[in-house]
Amino acid sequence: MLRYWTAGESHGPALVALVDGFPAGLTVDTAVIDAELRRRQGGYGRGGRQRIETDTVTFLSGLWKGVTLGSPLALEVINKDAKLERLEEVERPRPGHVDLAGAVKHLGGVRAVLERASARETAARVAAGALARQLLAVFGIEVAGWVTELGGVSLGDRAGTLPELRAIRDSSAIYSLHPERDVELTTLIDRVGKEGDTLGGVVEVRVDGLPIGLGTHAQWDRKLDGRLAQAVMAVQAIKGVEIGMGFEAARRRGSEVHDPIHYDAAARGGPQLGFTRPTNNAGGLEAGITNGQPLVVRAAMKPIATLRKPLESVNLLSKQPEEAAYERSDVCAVSACSVIIESVVAFEVAAALVDKFGGDSVTEMRGRWDLYHELARVR
Ligand code: EPS
Predict the structure, then answer these.
(1) Which of 13, 44, 161, 244 could form a disulfide bond with 173, CB atoms 3.0-4.6 angstroms apart?
(2) In 3-state terms, what secondary structure has residue 132?
């Protein structure tokens, strides 16, 4: 079973991801992980903290000469702004953040919970996800994500292969597939920032090259759609998750929603084993199992809760009305969110791949992958 946990506070010495169950024999490119960490720090509308940090990964365990050993991997991302011991308590909880509920729950203070709840923790998830993507790449499985909506402005879709779409996205300051609309959106972010406010948005992640058969219909907690929803929903500030047509499917008739099944003998050697679908409204999953179509997951991110023009709050000591606390924050982190959702989706898909094809070594996984496809074709 491939799984991971993270540890670390926003202003503690470091963030750590502990990855367990990762197969032996993968040559890891740390520069690829660092590139994802750098992307997470970017996107228009980020705050002052990103000018302090230069996130890079260090492997504390699980690698020998750059190759995974099959033992637990500990990944570390250092915090340059490690000042936790000098930070003061916060008495004015921010609406929308962990502050009030977390402090009451722990019978303690706000600082103790906000340091862990901060989205800085996602650096560790991106590091783990970027490692998982390297395992997926061995099997020709690719992941990419982008911003489809920002501050209520919808950017729409774009057709293309993942390398094509990734190149377009990388030319956008917003990480969208419509760089020609960057100025409109950066102007919006600037205006909202000047007003002391923040913006949310919607991100989409696509996974190409998936085989038929990852996940299961047989038990609720192993259904891949359920696992993806949990991983995505558990990212800071996410308020909604959709797969494929998502909520829109509820408004349409069955005949407009379900993807017809065709067969093309010439495509028998491909990942879909010859079964083709003219549409992909299911978003690559049927009954919790991948169906050979691209996986499409969308997530709705609420606006950042730390506002320069603070909302009404209450001083936890005096119980008198006061404005919520403000230190510094992002106006908009939706672009960064697209990198984070890519990472958590990549990790869940890699975990499902390990479930199906075994987790001891990449070589064995490869052999089992080939055998499975051979058996599925002659069936
Ligand atoms: C973040 C680092 C944090 C915040 C942000 C995410 O750094 P600091 O608190 O030192 O400014 O900028 O976290 C939040 C938006 C939040 O509300 O906690 C990061 O690296 O992503």
Answers:
(1) 44
(2) helix
169 exposure class (CB count in 10 Å sphere: 0-12, 13-18, 19+): buried
* Contact residues of ligand 1, CB 6 A cut-off: 10, 47, 49, 81, 97, 118-120, 304-306, 328-330
187, with CB counted inside 10 A (0-12, 13-18, 19+), is: exposed
Q: Per residue in 336-358, pLDDT tens?
A: 999 999 999 999 999 999 999 99
Q: How far is the CA of 119 from the centre of ligand 1 (A)?
A: 6
Going from the Cα of 117 to the center of ligand 1, the distance in angstroms, rounded, reads 9
By CB atoms closer than 10 A (0-12, 13-18, 19+), residue 150 is buried
Both tokens assigned to 129? 């996800």
Q: Pairing state of beta strands 57-61 and 63-64?
A: unpaired
| d(C-alpha 372, C-alpha 142), whole Å | 20
Q: Say what percent of the chain tops pLDDT 70.
A: 100
**Cα 295 to middle of ligand 1, angstroms:** 30
Average pLDDT over residues 356-361: 95
Tokens 């690698």 belong to: 63
Tens digit of each residue's pLDDT (9 = 90 or more) over 121-133? 999 999 999 999 9
Closest residue by Cα to atom 21, ligand 1, is 120
157 pLDDT more than 90:
no
Distance CA 68, CA 140 (A): 19
CATH of 3-378, one of 3.20.20.70, 3.90.960.10, 3.40.50.2300, 3.60.150.10: 3.60.150.10
Q: What is the mean pLDDT of residues 280-297?
A: 98
Residue nearest to atom 3 of ligand 1 (CA): 120
In whole angstroms, what is the distance from residue 272 CA to residue 275 CA?
A: 5
Q: Which residues pair with residue 199 across a beta bridge?
A: 332
Whether the CB-CB separation of 338 and 145 falls below 8 Å is answered with yes
User: Any bridge partners for residue 289, and if so which?
Assistant: 215, 286
Mean per-residue pLDDT, 12-27: 98
